[in-house]
Write a structure and sequence with these properties.
The protein is α/β, with parallel strands linked by helices. Helices cover 31% and strands 26% of the residues. It contains 15 helices and 24 strands. A 9-stranded mixed sheet has the order 5-4-6-7-3-8-9-10-11, sandwiched between helices. A 9-stranded mixed sheet has the order 16-15-17-18-14-19-20-21-22, with helices on both faces. The chain has a two-stranded antiparallel sheet with strand order 1-2. Helix 5 runs parallel beside helix 7. The termini are far apart.
Length: 503
C-alpha cells in the first residue's frame, strides 16, 4: 500500500488502526512509515556500503532499549569491537543491548572439514541453529541480523537459502519478535526473498561531483500499512541517522478565505492591489541589482515588527552580509534577528539536500513562522541534484505553506540579464503573485523599476513605478512612469520628449 493522499512530510501518515508499532528511533522514518514498523514481523533493510545500515539497525535497538524491551544484535559480519566502535562514534552506549557475534569465516573453511556431505548442507543449518539458539536465550522483542550477505555465502542454491529465511520468519511470528535483516544490494535470486518480507526499505548512496554526498531512503513495501512513497533524503552524522520525509500536502486543513497582509510600504500595497495574500506566494523576479532582495527583506521586516514569525533562508548571501545590508537600508532585521523575532539562516546548497531544507522549513512553520523568504531560487536549484523535479518539489512545498496560511516570498533571477520578464526561466506559473523588476535608462542614469505581472486573488495596478532603495524605509515607490517606452520588449528607456518621466 502506498501513501495516503494528503500526507504531510514530517507528520505521521494516517494508517490502519489496531496494529501495534515498533518505533524505529528515527522520527523522520517513523513519519514516513506511518508511525513505525508493525511488531512481530520481519523487515529487510537493503543498501550498499556506506549507506548506514548498521547505524540504522543500532538506532532501532536503542529505541527498543528506551522502551524497556529486550534487544539483540546478531553480528555475522561485524565483531563486537567493531559494533562498539560505531556506537562510540555516535556517542552511544550499548549497555543493555545483547550482542552476539558469530564467525562465518570459520564456517567457510570447508577444506578443514572431512565429510561426504555438501558443505552448505551442514554449515547453513548450523549457522541458523546458532542464531535461533541466541534468540531463544535472550527472548528479544527486537532483533537485528547483520547481515544476510553472510548467510547467502553459505548457501549454494536459492532454494536452500529461502528455506532458512522461512524458518526465521516462522520463528519471528511465533516468538513475537520484530526482526530487521540487513543486506547488501539485491542479487538476481533475491526477488523472492523480498516477497517473504513484511517490509522492504532501500538505502541509496549517490556520490556528488561536488559537495556533500546524497543519501536517500525509500520504503518499497510495508504490508498492512499506508506509508509515504518516493525517496526521502537522509543524513548520517554524529548521533545517528536523520531522515527528512518528502514534503507532501497536509490533510484535513480547508483553505480559508483570502486575506491580505501589508508589506509595510503603502505605495507597494497599492501596486499589489492591497498587499500580499496570506497563504499565497509572492515571486520577485528580475536581473541582479534591481532591488528584489531589498523588497523581500522589507516585507519580512514589517511582518516581524508586527509580531509575526518570520524565517529567511539565504542561498546566495551570508547571514552577516545580509544583516549588514539591511542595517544600511534602515531595516530593523538585525535587532529582530538578535532577539529571535526573525530567523535568518544561510543555507549552503552544496551541503543541504532539498529534503532536509523542506523539513527544516516545516519546523520553522510549526514554531510559528508566518512569513517565509527564500532568496534565491537559483540556490534552491543547486540543492536539487535533479533540477527537472524542482517544479514538483516546489509545488508540494508551496501547497504545504499555503495550507498553513504562510506568506511565501520567492526571489529569482532572469535569463539574459536585464532583457525583461518574458525571458525568465522561473517557476512563475506556480506563484500566486509575480512582481517584475528591471532597469530603465534616463538622464544618463540606470534606474530600477517595478511592476506587477499577475495576482491570482484579485486586481492590481498595471502601472510601472520607479523603485527607490535606501534609508529610512528601506524601499519606496515613485509615481507611475507614464512616458516610458520599451518596457514590454525588455529595454525600457525614457521618451526623448520627456527626459524625466518621474517628474
Amino acid at each position: 500500500m502506498g501513501e495516503t493522499e494528503g500526507s504531510a512530510g514530517g507528520e505521521p501518515v494516517p494508517s490502519n488502526p489496531g496494529l501495534p508499532l515498533a518505533a524505529t528511533g528515527i522520527p523522520g522514518l517513523d513519519a514516513a512509515s506511518g508511525g513505525g514498523f508493525p511488531r512481530c514481523r520481519m523487515y529487510l533493510l537493503r543498501g550498499g556500503s556506506g549507506t548506514g545500515k548498521t547505524t540504522l539497525g543500532l538506532q532501532f535497538l536503542l529505541a527498543g532499549r528506551e522502551a524497556g524491551e529486550e534487544s539483540l544484535y546478531l553480528g555475522l559480519s561485524e565483531s563486537r569491537d567493531e559494533i562498539e566502535s560505531i556506537a562510540r562514534s555516535h556517542d552511544w552506549s550499548l549497555a543493555g543491548i545483547h550482542i552476539h557475534e558469530y564467525s562465518i569465516a570459520d564456517q567457510l573453511r570447508a577444506e578443514t572439514r572431512q565429510t561426504i556431505f555438501n558443505a552448505a548442507e551442514i554449515e547453513l543449518p548450523e549457522t541458523m541453529a546458532a542464531l535461533l539458539e541466541a534468540m531463544d536465550r535472550v527472548r528479544p522483542a527486537r532483533c537485528v541480523v547483520d547481515s544476510l550477505a553472510e548467510l547467502r555465502l553459505l548457501a549454494d542454491d536459492a532454494l536452500r537459502y529461502r528455506r532458512q529465511i522461512l524458518l526465521l520468519k516462522e520463528y519471528v511470528v511465533v516468538n513475537r519478535c520484530t526482526v530487521l535483516l540487513l543486506d547488501e544490494h539485491r542479487g538476481p535470486n533475491d526477488v523472492e526473498i523480498e516477497n517473504l518480507m513484511h517490509g522492504v526499505i532501500l538505502l541509496d548512496h549517490e556520490a556528488a561531483p561536488y559537495g556533500h554526498d546524497r543519501r536517500r531512503l525509500r520504503i518499497k513495501k510495508l504490508r498492512g500499512r499506508r506509508f509515504s512513497e518516493g525517496y526521502h533524503d537522509y543524513r548520517i552524522a554524529t548521533g545517528g541517522i536523520s531522515v527528512y520525509p518528502r514534503m507532501t500536502l497536509p490533510e484535513g486543513r480547508p483553505a480559508a478565505k483570502v486575506e491580505t497582509m501589508s508589506t509595510g510600504v503603502a505605495a507597494l500595497d497599492r501596486l499589489l492591489g492591497g498587499g500580499v495574500d496570506r497563504g499565497g506566494s509572492l515571486l520577485l523576479v528580475g536581473p541582479a541589482g534591481t532591488g528584489k532582495s531589498s523588497v523581500a527583506a522589507r516585507v519580512a521586516a514589517s511582518a516581524a515588527a508586527r509580531g509575526e514569525g518570520v524565517a529567511i533562508y539565504l542561498f546566495d548571501e551570508s547571514r552577516e552580509m545580509f544583516l549588514t545590508r539591511c542595517a544600511g537600508l534602515g531595516l530593523p532585521l538585525p535587532a529582530l534577528a538578535e532577539t529571535g523575532a526573525a530567523l535568518v539562516r544561510a543555507v549552503d546548497p552544496a551541503e543541504m539536500p532539498f529534503g532536509e531544507f523542506a523539513n527544516e522549513l516545516r519546523r520553522a512553520v510549526d514554531a510559528g513562522a508566518r512569513v517565509v523568504v527564500i532568496d534565491t531560487l537559483v540556490g534552491l536549484r543547486t540543492a536539487m541534484r535533479e533540477e527537472r523535479f524542482l517544479p514538483l518539489q516546489l509545488r508540494e512545498l508551496l501547497a504545504y505553506l499555503a495550507r498553513s496560511r504562510v506568506v511565501t516570498v520567492l526571489v529569482d533571477r532572469e535569463i539574459g540579464g536585464a532583457r525583461g520578464p518574458h525571458s525568465t526561466d522561473t517557476l512563475s506559473y506556480l506563484a500566486d503573485t509575480v512582481v517584475a523588476f528591471r532597469y530603465y535608462e534616463c538622464g544618463g542614469e540606470v534606474r530600477p523599476v517595478i511592476s506587477v505581472l499577475k495576482r491570482r486573488a484579485g486586481e492590481h495596478e498595471h502601472a510601472i513605478r520607479e523603485l527607490r532603495i535606501g534609508p529610512p524605509e528601506g524601499v519606496d515607490l515613485g509615481p507611475p512612469l507614464t512616458r516610458l517606452r520599451g518596457s514590454v520588449t525588455g529595454g525600457p528607456v525614457c521618451d526623448d520628449r520627456d527626459p524625466d518621466p518621474a517628474g
